Amino acid sequence: MKTDLRAWLNAVESHGEVKTVDGADWNKEIGTVVELNAKARGPALLFDNIKDYPAGFRLLAGAMSSAKRLSLILEMPLGVEGLDLIRSMKDKMRGWSDELDEFPPMAVKDGAIFQNVDEGDRVNLLKFPAPLWHHDDGGRYIGTGSVAIMRERNGDWVNLGTYRVMIHDEKSAGIFIAPGHHGRIIMESYWSRARLRSPSDTIRCFSSPALSRWRRACPSIITSARCCTNGSLSSPDG
Questions:
Q1: Domain limits of the chain?
Q2: How many CB atoms lie within 10 A of CB 22?
Q3: Span 97-142, pLDDT tens digits
């Protein structure tokens, strides 16, 4: 299966594992529906026509909250659950590590990620329907299952990690990385030399479930970042 979000949505839809919800409010209603649905072990939810936003600016929740959907993401046999799924995942992860050298990175000139680009004055984080998930949240979280791609100060190490990101205003967002995480180690390597990270040193990728296979819930520090989207909270019909 192709690993982009659109292909994944088609696959889970064919298995009855996603439901479209129209007209929900980003202000706590989406968060409430998502939480109740998770407790009921319901399907993934694809929100569209969100209040204050045009059709096509969609939001996906619960992508990996069932064994079947997780198996579809990881291309595992369907029907395996519980400890059997964990054991299968453990074996498959060993295979991924052994095969890494067979999949070297390729530089390309174009891709789906460039279908929608906002730069300079056109940047507006509030164009995306990031929800206020809970009553006591400090703001609207746009990064929950996203990936932070960070380059170590000396350029020898590039790390991908999942850290929570909250919108502060149209032009800025906060990212908190708890002590001990690799992203925090990289961040502190810059601080130790009293050098602020430049925009090119951190890329925030709000992308497909296949890229965000493993999640780490963490906390947030303001840093300069570039954002790239590939269909999860992005463009019309993305």
A1: 70-102, 113-229
A2: 10
A3: 788 788 888 888 888 778 888 989 999 999 999 999 999 999 999 9
Q: Which of 210, 164, 163 is nearest to 69 (CA)?
A: 210
Residues contacting 130, CB < 8 A, separation 6+: 26, 140, 141, 142, 167, 233
Strands (E), 49-176: 59-61, 140-143, 147-151, 158-161, 165-167, 173-175
pLDDT at 43: 96
Query: What is residue 115's DSSP assignment?
Result: S
Give the single-character DSSP code of 27.
B
Give dist(CA 206, CA 175) in Å, integer.
13
Contact 207, 184 (CB under 8 A): no
Measured between alpha carbons, how far is 214 from 203 in angstroms, rounded to an integer? 18
Q: Of 235, 225, 107, nearest to 163 (Cα)? A: 225
pTM for the full predicted model:
0.77
Token pair recorded at residue 232: 């999860």
Q: How far is C-alpha 192 from the chain's CA centre? A: 29
